[in-house]
Amino acid sequence: MNNQHKTLSLRIVVQLLFLVVLMPFLPLLISWRWEWWEAWVYAIISILGFAISRMLLAQRHPDLLAERIRFLQHHNDKRWDRILAPLVGLGCGLVPMVAGLDARFGWSPSITQSMKILSLVILLAGYFLGSYALLENRFFSYLVRIQAERAHQVVSSGPYRWIRHPGYAGLLLANLATPAFLDSRWAFLSVGFLMVVLVIRTALEDRFLQDELAGYADYARRIRYRLLPGVW
Length: 232
Fold this sequence. Notes:
Blueprint: H1 3-22, H2 26-31, H3 37-60, H4 62-69, H5 79-105, H6 113-136, H7 166-181, H8 187-212, H9 216-222
Helix pairs in contact: 3-4, 3-6, 5-8, 6-7, 7-8, 8-9
């Protein structure tokens, strides 16, 4: 293994450790409230959701798992997505970070238990939808590109029968529920940032796929909505 591959591998490991292990525990680490059961549930759901979905992915589409691990080695991804993909990650990280700060300094009043239960259901639904999209679409790459070497084609099964970008929809749904579950009204500002980035990324990716991926324009005419059924 040459130095470049070693650097890429180390970078991927560091990113995975942050995204999968550190980020879910940010509310607890920042607030230092170890009795905060909602933060524990959030961390467990986040870690188990990632682990279970990737184990299932390794069984169903091992080639996609390899594709996602090698995302930094491809040279035909879109330049704009090299900016937007990290911004999506930043938005996802800001939500639990702000929630932790909110809990530490007491910025927000408490949210009712009934609202927390509803938000937990929505949070789980978001993870389920995102994982369903990942497992159904064997071209669910980390960065937007045409995967010609993997015979890239349109996927219209599973959640793709309802909306064109269910992975992004699931991600947005889970993050929309997180502030309420973690008692943080201020974290909705981070969700707003994430929503703007996701809408821009969805619009650019959808336009790119209609222009470059055979059959996607016809699929887009059949499946009207990109991100939110009945809205857009």
